[in-house]
Amino acid sequence: MTVFAASRPDLSSGAYRVWQRNRDVLLRLWKSEFLAQLIEPVIVILALGIGLGQFVELESGEEYVTFLAPGLLAMFPMFSAVFECAWGSYVRLEMQGTYKAIMATPVSVDDIITGEILWGTTRSMVNGAYILLVAAVLSPWLPMVESPWAILVVPLGALPGVLFSSVSIAFASIARAMSQFSYFFNLVINPMFWFGGAFFPFAELPQWAQVLGWFIPLTHVVEMYRDLLQGTPGWGTIGHFAWLLVATALFYLVALTSMRRRLVD
User: Fold this and answer.
1) Per residue in 10-63, pLDDT tens?
2) How far apart are CA 153 and CA 73, in angstroms?
3) CA dihedral 226, 246, 118, 176 (to 10 degrees)
């Protein structure tokens, strides 16, 4: 019971206030923040779908851009959460002193971290909704969205949003210099980017690679989204969701515990 009480989040409406603070900052800087994010997904879709897609033939006969779409819907929101809750959180923690200032108010440490995670999730979901919109608009020419089930990508995107935000803020809590984030990007994010099943069929990998890939969170996000975009949700989709749910709860508690130590020390 003592262990449970120690790990139980100390939450209040303060978490919303932290989220609100980040929202207000974004609203002041939205012109510089959103321009690149609006253009980049369109360029990537056109480059990989129209360019590279003409040279890639899948054994299933599926068009490469159709195969690629779920990966893009998983990766771009992941990057939004990572940059917001890794680099962004570290800046607010060490360089701007934002967390220390908030701690002088009746807001708990858990409120701060949860508010940060919710903000990273918000940025991730907005990014995912925009990419889904772009994919739907381009679908008459590039078949990326094949089913109305695809709309569920938006609300379900909250789960990987919380997961990747929690993973990122957990690393921010142990980083002692900005340069250390190169380890996080190269050893955590890059492997997920390349081996999460977004760019090539996961089933074509060697068996040992498929076993390792099962532990990569992005793999389950991509497969869940692929089922929805293709209109084939089933028990496998529920299995991917359950895996992500457990991993999200675990990393959320890790993020809280680790950042508590950092801020209290």
Assistant:
1) 899 999 999 999 999 988 887 766 776 778 888 888 888 777 777 787 877 788
2) 8
3) -110
- Which of 20, 144, 172, 180 has its CA nearest to residue 81? 172
Residue 216 vs residues 88, 145, 211, 254, 262: alpha-carbon distances, Å = 23, 24, 10, 17, 27
SS3 171: helix
Residue 87, Cβ neighbours under 10 Å: how many?
A: 17
Q: Where are the domains of the chain?
A: 2-264
Which residue from 133, 135, 154 is spatially nearest to 144, judged by alpha carbons? Answer: 135
Q: What is the per-residue pLDDT across 98-130, written as a single tens digit (0 to 9) for each?
A: 999 999 999 999 999 999 999 999 999 999 999
Which DSSP state fits 140? T
Alpha-carbon distance of 20 to 115, in angstroms, equals 8
Residue whose pair of structure tokens reads 């995912």 in the numeric block: 128
Radius of gyration for the chain, computed over Cα atoms and rounded to the nearest angstrom: 19
Q: Is 105 left (phi over 0), alpha (psi -120 to 50) or beta?
A: beta
The string of pLDDT tens digits covering residues 161-183 is 999 999 999 999 999 999 999 99
Q: Is-above-0.90 flag for pTM?
A: yes
Cα 48 from Cα 216, distance rounded (Å) = 23
* Cα–Cα nearest to 218, from 246, 197, 243, 249: 197
Distance CA 208, CA 258 (A): 32
Give the amino acid at 183.
Y
Encode 115-137: b = buried (16+ Cβ within 10 Å), e = exposed: bbbbbbbbbbbbbbbbbbebbee
**141/222 Cα distance (integer angstroms):** 22
Q: Write down the mean pLDDT value for the chain.
A: 90
